[in-house]
Each structure stands twice: as C-alpha cells, then as structure tokens.
Amino acid sequence: MENNGSVILETKSIKKSFGGVKALVDGSFSCRQGEIVGLLGANGSGKTTFSKIIMGLLHSDAGEIYIEGQPVHFRSPMDAMRQGIVMVHQQLSLIPDLTVWENINLGHEPRTKIGALDDETARRKAAEVINRLAPGLSLDRVVKTLLPSEQQLVEIAKALSKGGKLLILDEPTAALEQTQVNRLFEIMRELKSQGTTIIFISHRLGEVLEICDYVVVFRNGANVGTVRFEKDGRDENRIVSLITGKEESGQQNGAKDRIRSEEARLEARHLSAGMLKEISFTAHRGEIIGIGGLQGQGQEDLLLMLAGMIHLEKGELRVNGKPVKFHHPADAIRHGVVLVPGDRQKEGLFLNHSLFMNVIYARFGLRGDWLIPFKRLREEVKQVVSTLSIRTESLETEMQNLSGGNQQKVVVGKWLPLKPQVLLLSDPAKGVDVQAKRELYDLIRDLARRGTSVILYASDNEELVSHCDRIFVLYEGQIVEELAGAEITEDNLVAASLRATVKQSA
Amino acid sequence: MNIVNQLKNISRKPEFPSVIILITVIALNAALQKNFFAVNVINVNLLTFTPLILISIGQAVIILGGGLDLSVGTQVSLINVIMAVLMKDAGDNHAAVIPGFLAAMIAALGMGFVNGFTAGYLNLPPMIATFATSAIWYGLALLILPSPGGAIPTWLVKGFSWKYSLISMPLIVIVLAYLLWVFVRRRPLGRYIYAVGSNEAAAYANGVNTRRVKLYSYILGSFFVMLGGFAITFQAASGDARLGLSYTLTSIAAVVVGGIALKGGSGNVIGAVFGAIILNMVINLIYFANIPSEYQEFTKGAIIILALALAVVYRRRESKSLAIS
After folding, report:
1. B197: DSSP letter
2. Which of A97, A109, A343 to mutate to probe the B interface, most B CBs <10 Å?
3. Measured between alpha carbons, how far is A234 from A370 in angstroms, rounded to an integer?
4. Tens of pLDDT along A17-55?
5. Mean per-residue pLDDT of chain A
6. How far is B114 from chain A (nearest CA, A)?
C-alpha cells in the first residue's frame, strides 16, 4: 500500500568496530516515505550504532548511505540535520542546566531580525509540542529537576519540533507510562500521514506490533530479515526467533520451581526516609519480591535506602535477624546487601575502565586484602565472564566497548563472587533485549534458588508478574497493597496501582 | 504571597550566597573604615577592584563554557608590557597611542584564539594546555620587557581615573563589559556556551558546533581579560611582566565564590563580579583590621576558604532540594 512512496534512506553494507569488537558487520537497510519501520534486535546487535552512523555521530568504517537516492557522507550531526534527519537518543541528549523550552529549541533557535534570540517564538514553539505530548509540564523547569519520564518526553518533543523527513526514535518508550506512549503513538500516526518516515527502535514487541508497518531485525551487526505485517501477519514468535536466532520455546514462570523458606533474610520495620513512609516487610530466604505501582512512587528510593545510599530517618532494619545500621553503601555491602542501580552508565559502571576492573570494584567496599590479589581475582572474573557468557574481546576490554546487554550483565555479575544475601535490582532489564533479559532473569532465579533474597523494581509490569513470589504496590512512598500467589497477574497489578490513587484522593 | 515567592526565587539563584557574603564583607568593612561610604573612598576602591572584576568576568565566560584558563594572569602581563613599550614615547600626542591599543587587542584576541583552539579543536585538557600557554605569554612578555620599565602617557592615566560624583571611568568600563556579556547571552552563542559547559556530547548531538563555541568562549574571555589588562596598566602607568601573575588563581576563586560551577554550565556572570569584589574587600578588611603583616596571608586564606565553603555548600544543598521537589 504505502510501498510506492519514494525511497528516503538506503544504506549498503555499513561496517563499524570499536576496539576490536565488531558492532556492525553488514548494516543494510532501506525505507520509504511515510512508513513506520520497527528496527529490532538484541542488545549489541548494532541498532544504536547503525542509527548513530546515519545521524553523523559515528563514522562508518565502510559502506554507503543514500538519502533520496543521493550518496551522502555525514561528518557531524549538523550535516544530517540539514538533510532533515532527526533522532531521539536513548542516552538522552538534553542539557541538564537549561530549561525545557531552551532544550527543545537548542541548535535551531528562532532569531529576531537583528539576529538576537527570539525567546517568545521559541517558547511558543515549545509549548505547541509539549501541550500535545506532555500536557501540564512547565516550560520553565530546569531539565535536571525533571523525572526520567518527563525528560524522555522533552527529548521526544525536541525532535518533533525540528520537523524533518526522517525521524529516528531510539527506545523512546522505555521510561514512559502507557498514557504517555499512547499520546506519542497518536502523534507518530499523524506524522506518518503527513509523509514523515519514522524508524522506531524498541524492545517492547507489543508496541512495535501496534505502531509499525513492518520490522527489520538486526542480529550480531547484520540485517537478518524483514517481517512485513500485511504479508506475513503480525507474528510475534517469528520476530522473536529472528532476534534470538533460535526457535521460540515459550515463556516459563520461574516463581513455581522454587521452594520458599520461612527464614527471614531482610526485615524492615517502619522505615521512613524522604518520600518513603512506614515501610514494613520481611523478605525471606530465596524469595523474589517485586516492587510495583505507578512510576515515581518511591520505588527507586526504597532500593537506595536499603542499599545505604539514602539515610534512614526512622525505623529498624535487620539482616539475618541482626539489627543493622547502614551509614554508607559499604556498610550494606559488608552485610551482603548489594544494589544493581537503575542507570547503569551513571551509577553502575566505570565506562573507561576495563571489564576486569569493573568486576573487582565490587569488593572495594569490603575490608580485608592489604594488597589486591590480582592473580586470584583474575580467575574469579574469568569465572563470572563464562557463567554469564559475557561477549568480550578480553578481560582488558574497556567497558564502553561492550554492548548494552553485556554491560548490564557485568553490573549484576560483579556481585556474584561476593555471594550476596540480598540483591536489590532497580529496573535491571530496562533497554535490554529479549534474549539478554531472559538470561538475566535466569541468573537472578538461580541466585534466589541458592538462598539470596531478591528485591526487584521493574518499570515493566510483565517482568514483575512473571518472576516474583510477592509484589508490593507503592503509592506516594507507602506500601498500599500486597499481591501474592494466584493474585499475581498483570491485570491485578495494574488495578492495584490505580486503586491506590483512588483511595488516596477519596 | 507574591513577595514571598519572589524572595524564594531570588534565594534559588546560584549567586545568592555571594550576595549574602558581599553584604557581610561590606558591613564589616564599613565598621572598620569610618568613611567607607564617602564618594571618593568608593571611587578609589572601585578603581583598585576593576582589574580583578574584569578578569573574573573573562574567566567566568570560559568556565561557563566548560573550560578553564590558567593563562589569564600572563595574558594581562603581556598586554601590559606591549602597551608600556609602544606608548612610551607617545606623550601628549593622542594618535600615538593607537598602535599600542591595536597591538594589545590583537595580542589578546590571538591568545584567546590559541587557547580556544587547543581546547576546542585539539581537545587538549584546558588545565594543562592553558598552563602551557601561560608560560608562553610570560616568556613573550619577558622578551619584550626583561625588566620593569616603559611608560603610559599621563593623560591616559588621568583619563582612566576620571570621575563625576559616583560615575567614574572604571564603573563605565565595568558596566559596558557586562552589557557586552548581556548582549552575547541574547544571541545563540550565549546559550550554546551554557549548553556545551553543561553537557558537551548532548550539545553536539543537537547540532551545536561545540568546537567553535569553545573557541569563541575563550576569545570572548580573553577580550574581558584584556579590558582588565588595560585597567591595571592605566593604574601602574608602566610595564612589568610580573604584573598579572597573581590574577590567575584569584579570578578562578572569584568565579567559584560567585556561584558558578567549576565544571561549567551553571551560574551567572554577575556572580563573578560579586566574587571579585568580595575577594578585594577581604584584602581591605585585613588591612583595616590592623592584622600584623605576618598573619595577613594566613587570614586571607582562611577567609577565602570560608567564603568558598559557604558558596559551594549552599549550591550543593540547593541542587539537592531541587532534585527532590
């Protein structure tokens, strides 16, 4: 149907490697005017590298790019923008110290006749997109004070306000709630009807099936296939098997095959700190506890508090029956309470240090070794790398040269040698692909089976439902409901999250 | 209610602590120096404060853009000796000072260009690159004038200390310099300086020519430093290659006391002006408090640490409370 539109973008066998790691082997791709194309693939399959090359942020080692049939050679994002290509970045490209409207207009500020900044026009333009995408968000807020979901919306708004004929959205929905996603999709459909081409990169298959005309799948840096929905149908399993390269074996629920123990690992009694109020619960040996609820109800803070990063104002915490006081994350680590932070790049990793160093940093919170026993540690790290099948050139490879999924494995894996008592996970699968996600949760289940208590916050309800023994629903910093056993379904969880808001306002 | 909100907004401004410190030092100064508010005392104070104020404005522009300039002191020195040498024989011939001004201006913009080029285009760490260029400027200054000498025509020196009641030449220069910055802030360059200082990679991804922005921030910074160099030169009335040396670190301290983040991207240039006045006043205070000379340096250091701590701790707390609210 739309296939008679002219070809907007065509790429031929683009190649790119970073420090020996091949990120892109054969990036071939084409799309036509007015199409919404889903670009899928596991982490490390080269999607982000591919889009950054199109955007002029990275330079390819080989290959050709054609825009509307003309060969192009982008040396910087300015070149790409001049051709009408606009991108929403996964690692947001916002300026933390500028306001919402300043960010939206950055790089293409309206000017007055004498060349000064025309702030009135700039604000009006920003208001237009913000009113559609994020009604109620103040234009004068400084970006660093916004919630992650609000920042994501500003990032999208910025791209939309630039117009352009090709829009690349790299994981735009990872931080968004359903209503926000719906608003975005409405705008995407409208843009499509106006002839804009959109490349939509996402790990959320449901969304891809809903919004895209067809999908292109990358695996290990190469285009491995296209699924056209009108011809091939909206076949989820076929897409998944293209992504993983394996036949789909069906989702299994992990909560069933574990024996629950009544031995208390972590006991929280009336904990309060910041927005958190009167948090009480007991986590048992080998139990996986989920933290759910609407976004921004204190889920992340709860984990930070348990990890000793936010100080308790009131209440008591016990680990294995003994009362503990965490003044510092090191105290928590010494008691076996470890955190996998939400923003792996900012809080979990030293990107310019080696894989080896990143794994052993975990033990610097412990006292003990007078000198660092590098030889023994090297063996330990090798073990971690092979258990988690981390794809890397060597132990000395710099962290930033590993793909996102492999980076995430390191963030979790560095705690393994310490045999943690309590593992706190803040949205560990955010922006991680289907396969890596499954491996990650296999690992987490394995740890639980061996006695670790897991407390998991995930922005994706499906992850909570399929892995947790119990789920606590948070609202405004309090546990307002607990789901267990057969109550754990996605519908119940959503209902409980929404019920909380009604109760509070009544 | 509205006034409360307005006060709240003012207290959120990054330069707010420096205003409080400034009021405190002024009060202390006024208590120790009887005629502190007399017109001619104000004018004399302003005259001596002018060089640091102008140099700190330059340093502030560079730091806001994510850079740092350890060569501002020797830039001042080089400008000073160039003028002192070229204007030596000018006498009362007004046109004869033009080559001196022109050469100083070319030198200033050239030094800004070199610093900006190394930081922006060669991507060298500014702390080391400008440390190196500072040695070059100093070396050039020593070549031009190995031992103190040269002269500035008396009419220029007099002209710079011209005043009519509270309106004086230094005040006019400071106001014009600040207006120049206000003008730049009204143009895209001003916003880009903040953007690059706050998050260079993001600015680049938005199509900002980050290299050029860095280059311009250094050139603009050097222009303000040059004005500071003029101010010193007209007071010293002669040339000395060591004249500017102490200004490098003092200007950085003034910028930080003024609420500008050393990592760039946040704060206001007016804060640097307050910071410069505060640091000068501290020296006045020590003088008028009759502190024995062997304790003066010690006291000066302690007071600066105190002012710095106030400014930095306040900013940290403020940004934390913003993130929570």
Report:
1. H
2. A97
3. 59
4. 877 677 888 888 989 999 999 998 876 688 888 999 999
5. 85
6. 24
Of B186, B190, B208, Cβ closest to residue A107: B208
Answer whether B205 sits within 8 Å of A87, measured CB to CB. yes
Summarised one tens digit per residue, pLDDT across range A130-149 is 998 888 899 999 998 888 88
Return the sign of the alpha-carbon dihedral for residues A479, A484, A489, A492. Answer: negative
B200 exposed, middle or buried (CB, 10 Å; 0-12, 13-18, 19+)? buried
d(CA A104, CA B206): 10
Look at residue B174 in the predicted model and tell me its pLDDT: 97
* Count of CB pairs separated by less than 8 Å, A with B: 74
Give the architecture-level CATH label for domain A2-244: 3-Layer(aba) Sandwich (3.40)
The parent domain of residue B312 ranges over 15-317
The alpha carbon of residue B203 is apart from the nearest alpha carbon of chain A, in Å, by: 7
Domains identified in chain B, total number: 1
Q: Do domains A2-244 and A264-505 have the same CATH topology?
A: yes
Q: Taking 70 as the threshold, does the pLDDT of residue B203 lie above it?
A: yes
| pLDDT value, residue A20 | 66
State the CATH number of the domain containing residue B159. 1.10.3470
Q: Where are the alpha helices (DSSP H) in A162-298?
A: 178-193, 205-211, 229-232, 236-244
Chain B residues within 8 A of A118 when measuring between CB atoms: none
Instruction: Using 50 as the pLDDT threshold, list the residues of chain A that sit under it.
Output: 1-2, 248-254, 504-506
Confidence of residue B321 (pLDDT cuts 50, 70, 90): low
- CATH number of the structural domain A264-505: 3.40.50.300
How far off is chain A from B195, nearest CA to CA, in Å? Answer: 6
Q: Which of the residues B63, B191, B263, B322 would you substitute to probe the A interface, choosing the one with the greatest number of A C-beta atoms within 10 Å?
A: B191
